[in-house]
Amino acid sequence: MGALALDWLACYAIVAALSGGVNKMNPNSSLSVLMLFFLEVWMLTALQGATLGHRLFGMKVIRFEDGGAISLPQALIRTVFLVLVVTAVTFDQNGRGIHERLSGSVLTRS
After folding, report:
1. Fewest Cβ atoms nearer than 10 Å: which of 10, 34, 81, 109?
2. CB count, 10 Å around CB of 12?
3. pLDDT 10s digit of each residue in the chain, 110 long?
4. Is the pTM of this model over 0.85?
5. C-alpha distances out from residue 16 to 3, 27, 35, 79, 109, Å
6. What DSSP letter does each residue of 40-67 carry, written as one string?
7. Residue 79: is it exposed, middle or buried by C-beta count within 10 angstroms (0-12/13-18/19+)?
8. CA pseudo-torsion sign 58, 63, 66, 71
9. Considering only CA atoms, which of 12, 95, 107 is closest in space to residue 51?
10. Is 92 helix (H, G, I), strand (E, B) or coil?
11. Residue 99, H or E segment
12. What is the domain partition of the chain in residue ranges?
């Protein structure tokens, strides 16, 4: 949860900086933060296996099957369902959320 919060706050800070500060953010800024968060999580997970928050907390996303790097489509599926928060807070016996089961991935310590 800490890594997720850190990623969200980083995206919020970027949007606030580009908007001219927190006081000048408009109602559409929330959508901008969500879109930036989506892109950050999708691209960094697909390309590096970890977001900024994952790296700082010593975690990495890998394929559940064999421990290899996840593909771009797997990262996209994972991110879409992660953004739908309900799927990220339901876990199976392996500690994987629906977003991880549907994408065939797992978040591990690196």
Report:
1. 109
2. 19
3. 899 999 999 999 999 998 887 777 777 788 899 999 999 999 999 999 999 999 999 999 999 999 999 999 999 999 999 898 766 567 777 778 888 889 999 999 98
4. yes
5. 20, 12, 14, 23, 31
6. HHHHHHHHHS--HHHHHTTEEEEETTTS
7. buried
8. negative
9. 107
10. coil
11. helix 98-103
12. 2-109
- Residues 73-77: contacts with CB under 8 Å, at least 24 apart: 74/46, 74/103, 74/104, 74/105, 75/42, 75/43, 75/45, 75/46, 75/103, 75/105, 76/42, 76/46, 77/102, 77/103
Q: Tell me the two tokens of residue 96.
A: 């994987």
What CA–CA distance (Å, rounded) separates 7 from 12? 9
